[in-house]
Amino acid sequence: MAFLARQLPLERCEHFERSGLDGGHRSARGDPLGPAVSVSSASGVKWSQVRPPNTAIGGIVTEQPPTGVTELAAARTRKSAAPAINRDLRAWAKGIDTTAAAVELLIRGFGGRFAAPGQPWIQPREHVGHWADLEAIPGNIGALPGGERAYLLITASIGLGGSDGPAINLGDTISALGREQLTLVLAAIAHANGSHQSSGIEIDPVTGTPSLTRHASLYTWPE
Asked: What sign has the CA pseudo-torsion 136, 139, 144, 146?
């Protein structure tokens, strides 16, 4: 990430007092290796940031948005793009229950960030829209935490099936999920099975007349 260095009047830097190892106190101005300085950015946003070494010497402050600001901006970008991407993915998966279930897992889990542009498995279609390259998931999740990795392995397994899907230990994988993710996986299994569109014959207990009845999904997607 590029750093923006600019001259700031020293009076704009709020002194950050901290205890030294010798029990004394030093301010940010007198301590070029001090931990923090409060800076007002050009946009008027003010934050206290962790300062890398030598960034306040001579009144020169090297600043970058704190991690929280960067993550918030990225989340807003994902949120603004999400409706269109989600429509694309659902349209692409429509008609194939296993693929549709996997797409719903991508869209619904972990705030939708696994269905966001920039993920290696979210790919543009030739003319318009996006699709999910589920085969790309197993090879691109090694650095993720265990719960996220388990969730995505189940997603790929449901969506691909057969010899194309990743081989997973179901017991270990399921135990790595949180309650929210487990709820989504249960709904995905029911959807992949086609239980949301199954039907059967029921006999009226009084008249003995048979009728065709449409069954509800065994486990519905949470609202």
From this structure: positive
pTM for the whole structure: 0.61
What per-residue confidence (pLDDT) applies to 79?
A: 60
What pLDDT, on a 0 to 100 scale, did the predictor assign at position 33? 39
Over 80: is that where the pLDDT of 120 sits? yes
Token duo for residue 108:
């619904």
CA atoms within 13 A on the CB side of 221: 14
* Contacts of 103 by beta carbon, 8 Å cutoff, 6+ apart: 89, 90, 92, 93, 115, 132, 159
Report whether 129 contacts 99 (CB < 8 A).
no
Q: Are 221 and 191 spatial neighbours (Cβ–Cβ below 8 Å)?
A: yes
Q: Strands 4-7, 60-63: parallel, antiparallel or unpaired by DSSP? A: antiparallel
pLDDT 10s digits, 176-193: 999 999 999 999 999 999
Q: How confident is the model at residue 204 (pLDDT cuts 50, 70, 90)?
A: confident
Going from the C-alpha of 55 to that of each of 8, 70, 206, the distances in angstroms are 11, 20, 85
Question: What Å distances lie between residue 11 and 38, 147, 174, CA to CA?
Answer: 11, 47, 56
CA–CA gap between residue 11 and residue 157 (Å, rounded)? 59
Q: Where are the beta strands (DSSP E) in the chain?
A: 4-7, 18-19, 25-26, 36-40, 46-50, 60-63, 122-124, 130-132, 199-203, 210-214
Query: How many CA atoms lie less than 13 Å away from 92 in the CB half-sphere?
Result: 24
